[in-house]
């Protein structure tokens, strides 16, 4: 697999939910979006807006449509019905390269490329900005360096990816997304396979990125979602079950109805954010 093929696979602050907003404020708008896999409905009539500057967590049980929704936002899939607008334009009419200039997406995994170094992978983030011949310009090495510094992996630049720990690889992949130099960052379960310490490292990086980017992320850890996102979108069976700030969304009723568990929702004394105590399946 070539370096170009790797990026082809990859490229393509709290706020209240946006009930209204100008085109300039709106990053994404979904209008009655449906999506099917082999005639099986995954998303059913989803309509919502995400404004620039929001940090949004998509939560829900496995198979509820979270990752599918993220792929639609990143232009990696097309809706079966309805439309997805990016900065006021139907994303279906944008090319893959044009979408990658606006939206960076971090998938759960990337195909392995034996011998590839961290720097070589992060340089792939410049794919969408290259000229017709696909040449890497000198200035783009500076963008790569800056992205690696922001993700805290500059010292790993010459290390082969297979020699890195799970946490190090995830931070390198975040640097890859940052190297695309977009206003929007999509993250699909960024803490998957990481131990507790590395989960916190990655989430703190996401918090830092959110100060200047629009972030939409799929998370399974409800406490992380409540602490690091200003808005939760809870999906159930492909529909929007709840939408709002974590303190408004998380409740024992939501835990039961959306996640199928009995539980309690407390308030963290240090951060003032909701904390879920899960007791038993229902």
From TrEMBL:
Pfam families: ABC_tran (PF00005). Keywords: ATP-binding, Cell membrane, Ion transport, Iron, Iron transport, Membrane, Nucleotide-binding, Transport. PANTHER family: IRON(3+)-HYDROXAMATE IMPORT ATP-BINDING PROTEIN FHUC. Gene3D superfamilies: P-loop containing nucleotide triphosphate hydrolases (3.40.50.300). CDD domains: ABC_Iron-Siderophores_B12_Hemin. GO terms for molecular function: ATP binding; ATP hydrolysis activity. It is a peripheral membrane protein. It comes from Marinitenerispora sediminis. This is Cobalamin/Fe(3+)-siderophore ABC transporter ATP-binding protein. Residues 28-262 form the ABC transporter domain. One of its GO terms (cellular component) is plasma membrane. It is found in: Cell membrane. It comes from the Bacteria. InterPro entries: AAA+_ATPase, ABC_transporter-like_ATP-bd, ABC_transporter-like_CS, P-loop_NTPase, Siderophore_ABC-ATPase. GO terms for biological process: iron ion transport.
């Amino acid at each position: 697999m070539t370096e170009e093929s790797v990026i082809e696979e990859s490229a393509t602050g709290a706020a209240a939910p946006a009930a209204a907003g100008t085109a300039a404020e709106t990053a994404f708008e979904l209008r009655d979006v449906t999506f099917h896999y082999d005639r099986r409905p995954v998303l059913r009539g989803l309509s919502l807006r995400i404004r620039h500057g929001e940090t949004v967590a998509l939560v829900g049980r496995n198979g509820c449509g979270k990752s599918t929704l993220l792929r639609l936002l990143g232009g990696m899939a097309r809706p079966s019905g309805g439309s997805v607008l990016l900065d006021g334009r139907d994303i279906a009419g944008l090319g893959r390269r044009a979408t990658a200039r606006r939206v960076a997406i971090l998938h759960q995994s990337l195909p392995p490329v034996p011998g590839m170094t961290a720097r070589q992978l992060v340089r792939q983030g410049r794919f969408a900005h290259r000229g017709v011949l696909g040449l890497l310009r000198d200035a783009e090495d500076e963008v790569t360096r800056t992205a690696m510094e922001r993700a805290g992996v500059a010292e790993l630049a010459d290390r082969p990816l297979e020699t890195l720990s799970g946490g190090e690889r995830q931070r390198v992949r975040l640097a890859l997304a940052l190297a695309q130099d977009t206003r929007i960052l999509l993250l699909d379960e960024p803490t998957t396979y990481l131990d507790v310490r590395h989960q916190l490292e990655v989430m703190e990086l996401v918090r830092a990125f959110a100060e200047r980017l629009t972030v939409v992320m799929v998370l399974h850890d409800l406490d992380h979602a409540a602490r690091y996102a200003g808005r939760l979108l809870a999906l159930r069976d492909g529909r929007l079950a709840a939408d709002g700030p974590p303190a408004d969304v998380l409740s024992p009723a939501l835990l039961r109805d959306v996640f199928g568990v009995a539980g309690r929702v407390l308030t963290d004394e240090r951060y003032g954010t909701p904390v879920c105590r899960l007791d038993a399946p229902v």
